[in-house]
C-alpha cells in the first residue's frame, strides 16, 4: 500500500509539473500575441508608399501634401542652402521647388532601418525639371518619426552625385 501511495504521489506531482509547464507556455503565447511587435518590413512598405506620394506631389504641385509630410520641427538640408527648419519655413520653399516644373522624380531605397522611434530611408534619386529638362541624379537620407501617431519626415538631406545635365 505504501508503494501505491508513493506511486500515486509521484504521478500527481508529475502531472502538476507538466500542467504548470503547459500553462506557462500558453501564457507566453498569449502574452506574445497581445504585445505589439515592431515590424520593420511593414514600416518599409509604409514609408515606400509615403515616398512615392512625396515624389508624385512634386510633379502634381500638391504643396498641401508636401507641407504636411514633415514634422512641425523638421529640418531640410537642401544643396547650396542654409538649413530650413520647421514646417512653416519648409512650406515657404515648397512653392519654389514645385515651380521649377518637376516632370519626373523618383527615389530608390538602398538601405532601410530603424525602430519604433525613428526610421531611416537612404537611397538614390532621379529628378528631371525645368524648360531645359535638367536632369539631376543624387543620393538622399530621410529620417522619419511619429508625430500624432503618423510617420512624418523629421529630417531630409540630398545632394547631386553626377554633374547636372540637360536633355534636348
From TrEMBL:
Keywords: Signal
Signal peptide (from-to): 1-25
Pfam families found in the cross-reference section: DUF4440
Chain ranges of the DUF4440 domain: 47-153
TM segment ranges: none
InterPro entries referenced in this protein's UniProt entry, alphabetically: DUF4440, NTF2-like_dom_sf
Official protein name in the record: Nuclear transport factor 2 family protein
